[in-house]
Amino acid sequence: MKLSGQILANIDPEISRQLREITPQVAKKDVNVWVTDNETANRLNWIDLPTKSRDLLPELDALSAWARSNGLTQIVLCGMGGSSLAPEVIASTYKKLLTTLDSTDPDQILNSIPSDLSKALVVVGSKSGTTIETLSQFEFYINIFKEADLNPIEHIVIVTDPGTPLDIRARKESYKVVNADPNVGGRFSALSAFGLVPAALIGVDISLLLDDAEKLSLILSSKESPAIEIAACLYSLTDQIINFCDNGSAAPGLSNWIEQLIAESTGKNLSGRLPVVIEEVESAISGITVGFTPGEYDLVIEATLGEQFILWEWVTALLCYLLKVNPFNQPNVVEAKDRTTAILLSLGSKGFDTPTPAYEDSDYLIYSNQKINSLSDFLKSNVNYFAVLAYLDRGSDDEIYKIRKLIAAKSKTATTFGWGPRYLHSTGQFHKGGQQNGAFIVITGDSGSDIEIPNKDYTFSQLIMAQALADIESISERNLPVIRIHLKNRKKAIARLISDLEKN
């Protein structure tokens, strides 16, 4: 790998010295480096994954051979956060086909169905074995395979920690199961079974990923570790915002994986670092900017994908040491899950408890805890960042992403973009646990279709709405500015939002 950038000369030598002192302890998996809790006291096996994951190779070779022999060439991955972001980057880097389902939006779920179900292989990945989105997708795919007179057992593979409810059920029902190391946290699991099972099934030579990661690991555990320099920069040269741009790099989507890793790990105790994924270096509003190809970035990290994975895990762990936070827990992600469950339980026949909109026309409705009636008014909020949170179809509703750049330019404020509910497993932790200086633009929309969730009393459209409303509750209780724009006709309303931002 190669690390360059003029700001490296501005690193506080005392910060680097502190990190050099504790790097050997990290390499030895000494959890006392951080303040941890009982649940996360043993989450350091990611350090060994470049070598230990080689134990999976025979199992993954056999699994891939089985899939090929049965003509299972259309791979769908059902997973959230750490179970899906790394496989998606691997697929895009190696130019392999992988359909990632990390949403509860009915349209996105329907669009994930392979063209030929007889050739479909669905990987269901959940570390906890209780992830509501993933388990709902699991039930959905069981149902459609049965409706097509196909045996789900021959078309679904489970990846989970040993002993989880999903592991117990899957083994009882005779599904193929690959267990991950339970002592690796979800967002640190790129080189574990969660990343490697989908990679192997789409035809990636995972031994190359591990080779590259292992070679760099030898340097990262030394006092000359480049992770020390990067962590020191992210700690001392910005108070909050870190821009990431993978435009033109060999690993499209790498920024999104890093975003989850840093935001969910550091965004606690009202501190942290907020990654902002930008389209090009000129889009940066504040903070420092990291790129992965030579350019006008503050920091440039040129490395293979295997190197990037292990490098950023080390960087994040060291950054959390400096910030004095536990890298391995995610308390506010659990909060979002609990609120969603409560809303679904209270749903009944009366539907959602919806307040009176602040504004309504033929295209959309606006709700807010602020005295405003337009998005332009909301953008006058005096905050450190805006977060666009789109509970829409990542695929057919991709035009909505354009408003990130437009809002940043109009407000002259750093602006993130997250697909809901995916961001709940990523920046969602930072929004509620990090610095309380953001404003939130939640976008929901009428669905063109809906899907019953087998064995549940609610549908997918109700689930995704409950997730959006639950997060709005959490944000509002912290007295943070939030606006919800509900689109009546998605394409028409998205076009209008873009047009209005371009005009004003």
Automatic annotation (TrEMBL):
Pfam families: PGI. Keywords: Gluconeogenesis, Glycolysis, Isomerase. PROSITE patterns: P_GLUCOSE_ISOMERASE_3. One of its GO terms (biological process) is gluconeogenesis. GO terms for molecular function: carbohydrate derivative binding; glucose-6-phosphate isomerase activity; monosaccharide binding. It comes from the Bacteria. GO terms for cellular component: cytosol. This is Glucose-6-phosphate isomerase. It comes from Candidatus Nanopelagicus abundans.
